[in-house]
Structures are given as C-alpha cells and as structure tokens.
Specification:
This protein has one domain: 4'-phosphopantetheinyl transferase domain (Ribosomal Protein L22, Chain A), CATH 3.90.470. It is 39% helix and 28% strand. Strand 2 and strand 3 form a beta hairpin. Helix 1 crosses helix 4 and helix 3 packs antiparallel against helix 4. It is elongated, with a radius of gyration of 17 Å. About 6% of the residues have low confidence.
C-alpha cells in the first residue's frame, strides 16, 4: 500500500515592496544583516544594478521577507518559541525551484512536527507585481523509502540535497 504525503503546515504573506525600500534606505546593512541570510543577501544584491523599471533589489528582498513570514506561519509558531528571522532562508534547488533552508529554532520546530518515518519538504512560491510581493509556503511530509532508511541515516531537514 502506497502512503501519500501529509501537509504539516501552510502559510502565506503579502508585503508592500515600498515598505522594504524604506527599511533599506533608513536602516541599510543593519536591517539586511538582522533579517536575511548570506545567500539571500548575495542574490538580492546581484539585482541592485538591474535595469528593471522598479527596484529589483528591494523586490528580491521583499519576496524573501514574505517567505520567512509565510514559513513561520506554516511552522505554526510565527516568530516566537525560538524561531528567528535568520533561521529561515530562501535557497534554490538545482532546477531553480525555491525552497527554504532551516536552521536553529526553525529546524527544531520542523523536526518536532515531522512524524517519525517521514521526511519534511518545504514548497515555496514567490511572486511580485510592484508594489506588492507575495510568498506561499506548504510544508509536507513524505514517507522515507525503506531502501533509503537502510542506506542512509534518515534526516528531517528540509534543505536541498
């Protein structure tokens, strides 16, 4: 009998990109370092020189900000119980598909909500249409294949492999 995946949590967030633009102008590096991982910063800063009509750098940061909010909601905690901004970071799979890499309290919460014998997966979609950016996160759990259990130590991380 095939066991299907289970949804562990769903979260979404909508943010006004102009709010992020103002935070970048007012607080600069202090805001960036407090909220975003090194990987997120590198991706967003590469967009700084973009010829896009609106601020592509701020849009990129805004989508990642929304993803963190959405992920914290999907974890069922928000930003409390040891879950912090930099515990969650948007990364891309080799295919380009976005997902989240969790550490610290966010990873601990993910492990706590993932049933035994299951592996968590974090599905992320990001979009923006100036002046708004949105992220939607679904955390699911899929059975670990019996062959995988024997050949490798099971983990519950949701990082790209």
């Amino acid at each position: 009998m095939m066991i299907s995946g289970t949804i562990l949590g769903i979260g979404n967030d909508l943010i006004d990109i102009r709010r992020v633009e103002k935070s970048l102008e007012r607080f600069g590096k202090r805001f960036i370092d407090r909220i975003f991982t090194d990987v997120e910063q590198a991706k967003s800063e590469r967009r700084a020189g973009s010829a896009a009509k609106n601020n592509a750098r701020a849009s990129t940061y805004a989508k990642r900000f929304a993803a963190k909010e959405a992920c914290s909601k999907a974890l069922g905690t928000g930003f409390r119980d040891g879950v912090f901004w930099r515990d969650m970071g948007v990364v891309n799979l080799p295919s380009g598909q976005p997902t989240m890499r969790l550490t610290g309290g966010a990873l601990a919460r993910l492990e706590a909500i993932t049933p035994p014998g299951m592996r968590a997966r974090i599905h992320v979609t990001l979009t923006d249409e100036y002046p708004m950016a949105e992220a939607f996160v679904v955390i699911s759990a899929e059975p670990i294949e019996p062959a995988s259990i024997q050949s490798e130590m099971p983990t519950k991380t949701a990082t790209p492999e």
